[in-house]
Each structure stands twice: as C-alpha cells, then as structure tokens.
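Q: My collaborator sent me two sequences in one message, no labels, and asked for predicted structures for both. Can we handle them in order? The first one she listed is below.
A: Yes, handling them in the order given. First sequence, followed by its structure tokens:
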Amino acid sequence: MSFDLVIRGGTVVDGTGAEPFTADVAVNGTEIVAVGPDLYEGRREIDASGHIVTPGFVDAHTHLDAQIAWDPMVTPSSQHGVTTVLLGNCGVTFAPCKPEHRELLAGMMETVEDIPSHAIMSGLSWDWDQYGDYLDAIARSEPAINVTGLVGHCAVRYYVMGARAVDELATDEEIEQMAALVDKAMKAGAVGFSTSRVEGHRIPDGRPVPGTFSSEEELCRMAEVVRDNGGGLMQTVLGIEGDADKVCNLLRKIGSVGGNRLMTNTSVAFGWPRRPGDDDGQLMHERFAAMADDGHDVTGGCIPRGSGYICGMCNELPMRTAAWRELAALDFEGRVAALDDTDMYARLRDEAIDAMDNRTDERGPLVRSKAMFWLGDGPEPDWAAGDEYSLHSLAEAAGEHVVETFLRISKETRGQAIFVLRVFNGNLRALTDWMKSDYCLPGLGDAGAHVGQVMDASWATHVLGYWTRDQGVYSLAEGIRRMTSEPARVIGIKDRGTLEVGKQADINVIDYDRVGQLQPQYVYDFPNGAGRYTQPGRGFRATICNGEIILENDTHTGERPGRIIRHGVAS
C-alpha cells in the first residue's frame, strides 16, 4: 500500500489546541487519510524531521476581491502559509453589480481600500451580475489557494437603491429587495454578510459608503436572512474607539438574531491623538466577554502588531511641502539621487522643519514621530521596537530634528528604509492583553488592500515567530489553533483547519526556528503597472493546498489547486 504524499517524521501541531506529537501525515488526492507513526511509503515524500507540521492558515480578513483575478498565486498571503482567504469584508464587494455600477464599486474600493480603480477596471472580467456569478469568475482564475467570501452591504445597497444608497434610508420594500439579494448570494455560496459603519470609509466624492447610516432594522433583517440560510458570519467594521458602548450595543442587536457568528475589527486604541493606556486590552476583553456571557458568538479581529501606515523613499513620503512634492514626482532612483544633492537635501530638511514648527502640515506622519518607528536594516522588519526606538527617541539621541533623522536614515540606507506609523495598537502591553483574550482573533491583515500604505498580509508569520516562538504569549499549540481551526470555525468552514483523517489536505511544513518575514518590498506588478507593497516569508519547507504542493522551500511551484468554498462546502 502507498499514498500519494507522505509528510514524514514532523512535529504535528494539529490545529485543535492539543499538544504537539511526532507522526507522519499521509494524503491521497485532496484528503488527509492517515496520521500516525511509521506510515507506508508515499509516491512523494517530504522529510519534516526537525520541522512542525500544521494545518494551512486561514485568513479571515482580506480584500483580495480584485487582486486574486490577476494574481492567482495570491501573493504574499500564500508565501506565509495561508491556504484559505475570506473575501468581501467591510461591506465592500464587487457583487451583486449592475453594469452601470462597475465604476462606482471600483472607485469605492480605491477610496476605502487603496486599490487602484484603473487596475480594478482593467484587471477584472466584470462578467457577472449576481454574487454567485462573481464566485464563478474567481474560480475561472484558478487560484493557488482556497477562496470563500461574504456579500457586501455597499454593493447590495447600490444594486437596489442606485444613487440613493449613499445618503437615504431604505424603504421597507427596498429592505426586502436587499434581503432577497443576500438570500440569493448565500444560496450561491456566500458565507455571510458584511457591512461598515465607519464614517472614514468614503466613496470618491467624500461621502461615507452606502450602509454607514442604514437603520438597525435593515442590518437585523440581513442577519435574519443569514440565519435562515443555516447561520453564517455577520462581519462588521464598527471600530471600538470612541463610544464603545454604542458599538457593543449595535453588535448585541445584530447578535440578537440568533444563529449567526459576529466578527468585528478591533484595536487597542489609536496611537494618536490619544496615547493608548496600559489597561485598554483588558477593557477590550471585558467588553467582549460581557457580550459572550449574554450568549453572543462574538470575535474581534486584530492586527497583531502596531500598524496603520508605512512610508519611505520607495513609495509614500511623510511630508507635502514644495520640495517634498518634487521628490514625490521622481522615481525611486531619482529620489535616492536627490538625497545626494546638497541643495535639494537642504530644501527637504528646511521646508519640513518649518512646516512642522509652524504647524502647516499637521497631517504628515513626522508630526507623530513618537508613534513612528524605523523597521530597521536587518533581513527581518522590527515591528515591535520599544519606545526608545521611535523616530522621536532616535532623533533625541542623535541631537537631531526628527526630519533630519528621517532623511539621514533614508540616505544611509540608499532609500531602502521603511518607517511604520503605529496608528493602531500603539501600546504593546495593552495589545498583549488583548491578544491573550479568548475573543481575539489575530489577523486583520487586509491582504490585497491599502497596497501602498500597509503590509500586514504577513500577520501569520508574525504570530508564529513573535507571539508564539519569541514571546511565548501563545503556546505553539494555541498559536496554531488561532490561525487554523478557530478562524475556520468563525467563517463556517468545516472540512479544513485541523490535521485529521477525512479533512482536506491543506498543510504547512515549517522550520519553526527560522520562520519569519523579510522586509517589505515595493513592486509594480498590478495591472497598468500600478505599484504595491509585498513581503516574502521564510522558513516554509512546504505549503500544501488540496493535496498539491504550492510552495516549496519558500518558492512557488506554480501549482494552482485552490477551490471556491461555498457556504462551508468546497465546490
């Protein structure tokens, strides 16, 4: 007897939270068929001795809705052990969609998620009307990893209400028309419904996205549809800052329509303008625990590091004065050369210092230098540097203005330096408390979105390397559970997320001692030459999706065996 594939002699971390154990894992076709010692030989074998063997990671918050159509390798997610992604978060999706609304949805995705609309318009086939047709189109792109999706409130509202969707309340008849669309989407495979109540999410003309001010009755009606389709996920981006009681009360109302799981975006307070307190993580836990005690299945997705905005010579710059606008107009090589020009360097320095001292550029990241950190010049970015490594502290130590420190580091690194402004999760102690909570789901990497502003699609390797291996906040078993079976449960995926006989063969073989992420890179590989940040991973001996090896020794094999997972069942 032989198997198609045997992963031999690794430390199996099965995703259930159970203690790791040494075993072989055998695969036939797309399915795990045996887990145990000394299994029969495989037609192909992977030596996993000295490595951990885990389920494929499940990313429950992406905006790959457009990118996946022109990047079937789904980078960089698939370079970090992710084998399943959830699309359609935050209410923004491309279906259902009438032909006359295509540019509206593309423009909204640009202003909300920083995905270039010209890339969307030219990169998508747009050969769909209903949500199920959109899933069919994604299937035709033959992605390397599995895809599942939520139907978004914005698209549903546009479909029913047209231009009135942005500012007006829906009539009872329109709510029922929207309910019918959501019902149709779920029957065609959507795993739930998403919406946004964040006023900062705006369409190109500056108004908040459709659904921001919709009635609670409208949201609860959509929750009823999700419930009546066997239950599913109600994903919201409500924010937890500001009036936390108001946010939690709305979650409770949505959750009162029983049978659905709730997931919302969280952070332990913005790093600016209010300095987050050490107790913010515990307060977050208490809010969610209270909702859970009342019977709600509620989860808070959270970026597992300080994040929100990255800048450097490779893309966005931190100031907007005349000299800096001239610098922004140059390509990368031109920018580096400009730093060597004594006169230009002096203009950049003097204009920026003047703007900061006279508060004429209060939105620039350098104004918030205490929350701004250099990712370092090592092979891996330092996402967790202490306050003594903030740009403010580095400038004080060097006896420089923060502008001088930014320019000096940029010049010394030949433009390679990247700086992160910790808009979210600026207090590591508070973040640690929230990460420990049973209600926190690490992730929220926004893969496919904010492509010129953040690079958090590598969240899984950060959880595994920093929070699990280096800090011990999670045991190995718990860290893997939070990236596999738990997000699968929240989404409603039943056939993967653990290494058990009968489950689909989504598997990682990882060099745990060296797993990590390399420095972010800015590349121009989107349609029409549009740019984006990406970030390779390291330490992945193999990543397997549906029984096929898609990544071997950190390099894609070219295999694209991903499936569309419709309402919990692979099509």
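Q: And the one she listed second?
A: Here it is, processed independently of the first:
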Amino acid sequence: MPLMSFPRRMLFSAGALSLLALALQSPHFAQAQAQVQAQVQPQTSILGFTPSAAKREAEIENKFKAIPSPDEERRQHHIFTAEPHVAGSPRNNELARYIADQWRQEGLEDVVIRRYDVYGSNPKSTSLEMTAPVHYRAILRELPVPGDPDSKNKSISSAWSGMSASGEVTAPLVYAHSGNPEDYELLRKQGIDVKGKVVLVRYSNPYSYRGFKALTAERAGAAAILIYSDPAEDGFKKGKVVPNGPWGPEYHIQRGAITYDFMVPGDPLTPGWASVPGAKRIPVEDAISIPKIMALPLSWHDAKPLLANMDGPLAPDSWQGGLPIKYRLGGNRVRVHVKIVMDNSTQPYYVVEGRIRGAELPDEWIVLGNHRDAWVFGGVDPSSGTASMMELTRALGKLAKSGMRPRRTLVVCSWDGEEVGLAGSTEWGEQFADELRQKAVAYINVDEATSGSNFHGQAVASLAPMLVETAHSLRDPSGKTLYEAWKESSARDRREAKQPEEVADSNVTDSNLADTRIGSGSDHTVFLNFVGIPVLGLGFEGSYGVYHSAYDDFFWMNHFGDPGYRYHTLMSQLWGVLALRLSNADLLPFDFASYAANIRQFVNELSKNKNMWGQPPSAVRPGEARQPPPLDLKPALDAIADFETAGQRLDASIARALASGAIDSKLAATINHGTMQVERNWLNPDGIPGRPWFKHILYGARFTYAHLELPGLTEAVEKQDWPTAQQQAEILRQALANNTKLVNQLNSTLNGAMRAEK
C-alpha cells in the first residue's frame, strides 16, 4: 500500500508540544548536546582493519558521530510516546508506516513492511473483587499524577496480562511470594494446597519472568494468578516515587504477557516456521506456549487490602514486603472473585525492514533491530530504543547520501509483538533463517536504550573484545570515555549486588567487562538460539520503577531517565559505530580464543554444580569417600584447549595479515565466510532436550528468562539424567572439534596465502 507521512498534529498532543518547546529552549539542553558530540581521540588501530583502512574508518566514524542530535532524539522519542501503542493496535500500525516513510526520506533502500499473522491477545474486560471477609473492588487502573499530562490519557488501558486465559472463579486467596517452585513447596509444608485457589505473587524477589510464574501456578493447579508490584522491589522502599522520583507510585501496574515463550517463542500456532499470511497452523489446544490459566497484574494499592485481610501462618521474613502489614500465607479467610474476558485470536503484526546496501559486499549483512510495540507509552521500553534507532538511521542515511556507503549491507528492522512473545523478530528470523545463515555477520539488539547512565553491554564471547575496544572511541556524557564509565559502573554494581561467585570479583578487566551470559526476553533470541548468529545487546540502565506501566512515558524520561537525551544520543553513536566496524572490517573481528576461554569457564562452573555428584554429601557415611561424578567432562575440556590454541593461532595470523596492509579480496572472503560459520556450528539441529526450537548448545535461557550456559548439558545435570548429560557432553565435544578443525583450516589458508605473497 502507499505509505504517506503523518501530519505533526497526529503525533503530538498540544500540552506535550508546549513542554517540548520549553525544554528545547533551555541553555542546559544546548550545553548537553555540545558535550555529547565532543569527540575522543580517534583509534589508530581497530580490530579487523588494516592500518590504512583503520584510518579511513576513524574518519567515517567521526563524521557519523557528529550527526545524532539530542534535539532529534527528543523529538523522535516524543512521537513514539505520544499515545499508547500495544502490539496490533491501530496506533502501533500507524507508527510502522511512519517509520517506513521516514526511512525512505532518510535514504534507506528496499523499505518494506512485512505482515505476520500472530495469535495474540487483547482484553475485553477484567475485574477483581474481594468477597470475604470484607468487600473490596479493585480499581485496576493508574491514577494521573501532577505534572504529567500523559497520565491523564483516556486511551490508557486497565490492568491486563497478555495471553491470559478467559474465565471466572470465586476462590480462596493464597500468598505465594514470588511464585517460584520452591515457594509452593514451602506452602505445601505449611499444609496449604493451592489447587483451585487464586494465588497472589510478587513480581520480583527473586526475579522470574511472569510467564514462568504463571506456568508454575498452572502446574500447581491454581485457578488464577494475581501478580503485583511490591514497593520493596520498585516502589517507595527504593526511593522517591513518580512524580518526585523514578520509582513506581502506589497505582503503577506492571503489565506484560505470560506467554510460555521459553518453550517456543513467536507465534504459538507456527512453531519453527514463519506465520506469513496463509501459513499452516497447529490447533490452539496443541500450542505449548499458550497458557491455560487466568492472570492479572495489580498495583500495590489493589494488593494491599487483600494482603491485610489474610489469615494463615505468618509468612517467612524473606517473604515480607514493603507494605506496613504482616504478610500471611492465607488460604481460607480471604476469598476473591476474578473474571477475565480476553479476545485471544490471530491478528496481523507488522515488521518494518530497511537497508543500506553494501558497496562491495552486499550479500553480507549486519542486522540491527529494536521493537516498536509498548504496553502503554513505552518511555523506556521500547521507545527510548526506537528514538535512538531513528537517529541511527538518519545518520547512516546521511553518510550514504554523501557517498560513504558501508562495505557490507546494513539491515534495520522495527519489530512488532515483542512484548507478546518475541513475535515479530521470531517470525522474521524463521522466514529468512536459511538466508541469514548464509549472509548474516551479526545481530545488534537495542531494546531499552536508556533508563539511566550505567552501560550494560552483552555479546557472545567472540565479539566481546570488539565491543570493549569500541567503547574507547566514544565519549560518555560524564566526560569520561564510555570505556572508563563502563568499567567504573560495572565494578560498583558488582560490589553492591554481591553477585554469584563467577562475577563476584569487582576487579573488572577487559576480559570480563562485557556480559557474555545471554538469556532471553528480547529480540536477539531467534538470531542466537535458532539461526546461530552472533549477537550484541546494548543498553544504559538506572533506577527504573515504572516498567510496563502508564508512568513509563515522556515525562518520566525527561525528569528521571535521560534529561537532555544525552544517553539516547550516545546509544545512537555506539550502535552505529559497532555496525560500521562490522560492515567495513577487512577481516571480521571475531576472537575465538576469547570464546574458548569463556566456554571453559562455563564447563568449570558446571563441574562445581552440586548435582554433578551421584549422591548428596549427606548420603556419604563417615569414613567413606564420596563417589566421583558420573559425568566425565575432561574430553570437553581437552577439546576446549584445542579450540583455544586454534583461536590463538588464527588471531596471530590475522594480526600479521592486517599489519601487512593489503589483503586479497578472495582470500578475505574465504576467511570471513569461514569465521561466520563458527557460530552456526554451535547449533544442534535437534535442539535442547525438551525444547527443540532452542538449538544453541552454548547459550540458552531458563524458564525465568535468566541466562543458562550449556543449556542441554546443564539441564540434564540438574536432573541427574546421566545418559542425556553424557550425550550432551559429546555434542559439545564434537562441536568444539568441528570448530577447531575449521579454524585450523582458515589459519592454514591464511598463512599459505601470506607465504605465497612473500
């Protein structure tokens, strides 16, 4: 269909325009803009580049970094936060057309909007009442706050959970803490059975994805699950609340989907293939990612009367929350009536795709993406990322128009339906999986560009050195380089968080600065876990207590998240520089020695897992030796050593070849295509046992979305399923051997060509 630009009046409210105009006139805003655009000294040596190419690349990067503007970041951010735009809504589809129109004007090529028909959900009506011992009807809405005109928007939805089942029940209420399996075990020990009852759980403490909470409740036989935001996690116990601070106020509601996308992401009815119009679909009753339980999110305002009237045993100290009441387990006294009517049906979602075709290697792709759909306004999630993406494309388009076209093709995508089950990116990735495996160099994901100033960079280990190196070339708004600011905030966060043993050391080094433990929960999932493409994930983080609520909006960003839009601008710069380096590199900057060291760390951690032993320590009699583990990981460790040696040799050969100053294009193509194959070789076509869609043998995610290294092997060890564990260990060893052979062949080819030139 023809795509037309939208009049500005369709994209801004009058009150918000006034706020925007006043802010843009501030001298502090202009000062911040100038500070962000200050350049650091250009790097004279860049991974993957010959000396002369590195010099040209530095010149290109400096021109690129001067283009993104805080003014434009703010303008675009306001466009995307002007109205609620949940997946499948008319507003979200309007924004898809707006993006496509902008990209065409900016000079992107092959701009297309792709349709995927996805089984999704929208609420018809939701209600919650306490019927005993007193009556209380939950308001299930967020009240406006002073100073924030968007909080009065009539289009803000009431509370609802994506993919909830429809139904109606009146039943006793049980408090189940965070809703994890161990919480239900404690309830059972207290004589409390949740079967047929309604469970009330907290969003965090410890964190777990709401879909896992729903599945756990469903398996326990609960009739419905209520998930509320306790002030101990994201409210007044953390600090000042909106409108006076960044934390969640009394009425904030964390919406979200409960899709079981940790089993199969994307459209539940097309698991493993694209949901293009007319695609075959499985019956709804056969879709394992569709929940069968009713779910509803609550503010603490609505949860407090329920908790205050509960009977039963006093909850453990670790279950007590931030409200000024004694939390009890319940089960008898409080009865609630829950009624949820959903429209769960197949509906069109739209992915916007645009390209800047490569001047020399158009069939090698760097893919960049951010999702567009939001639960309400999406001030942080995802509109901060979308604003940064729009400045990224404007800057890249301006370079291309001036003749600075990248060597490889840049593919930029605005995903739809991420919040429902990673839908748009998954369907696009499934549709083009074969082509991506042939052509894609890497995928760079930005979900939330910024909720604060602390950078969090994720990368598969082969790209971690490149990410760290790139951070030296950018200026943080603090005045330090991004690298310096990143190291300082990482060390501070690790000390304060008292993280587990593997990251407890606060002595941050280049080798552990990037986060190489990649779980799920965002659009990188299909690229890494299904297609086998190396991924990077970028974001700036801070105090953020309004996640998925109506208060995550333009007001919040301008007062707490990123006043001045300096970190939005830095994100556009970082995202673009990484893309340009991958696009323009002579030899792709993969570091397989680093990858090997990371895999060794994963295996060593697994060897210390308490489930590795045939019997627990308590079963060992005095004077008896504990039986050795039934799984021998030495073959895998030996294979890692071989892979590391091969990686070190290739690193050295590549460094010599680049230093020579000239690399034959056919030789470069051979080496680059070979190194691109390494990530594909980590895929097991049969997938993780029990979850065949997830095929990566190094990276996976737990049902909580948390990272899970060596997923098939680790899950087998934790179950003490030794035949499966042995099989998975052999799959790992064989993949390492295959990649060692490949890397050695590439090294031999490169050295042979270099000797021939001499």
